[in-house]
Amino acid sequence: MLGSIDDTPIVLRRVVYAQAMQRRIIERAVGIWSRGVPATATGDQRSPELSARCVTALAIALATLIPQMKHPLFQEEREWRLVYTSYMTPDVVRFRQSGAAIVPYINVDLTSQSGPRAGRIPLERITHAPAPEPDVRKRALRELLNAKGYPDSDVSIEGSDIPLRSA
Description:
Shape: elongated
């Protein structure tokens, strides 16, 4: 656990791209969950309230795992994600539009607190998404970095090798 917001944990997880590994992770989580389900949550004598709590527990467990899974086409990214479960603190969650989707996010301060990079995120490299004009994207990123106080020599900018979708 890296930290918390209102005592809710933030966990750093490596993204899993291999579908077989993703399946194993989900199957393991469901197996652990099913071994913990009391008999009174299933069968003819089940308690509807207990059944609902058990299903909610599984949904929460899976919701914390899903953010670490991504399609194998993106494995070049070697991404890590901060996973924050905000079930008890919905006021912390913000939303943004991305294409046709609404994406939830939270603000997390990742800036260095001291040293030559104080007040800045300790970036070393940026790999940008595929673009029809990658030089324009690279130039815009460089200008953004300069405006935020990053000298040209501090951060390298590379383009992704993933092919650009034409749709």
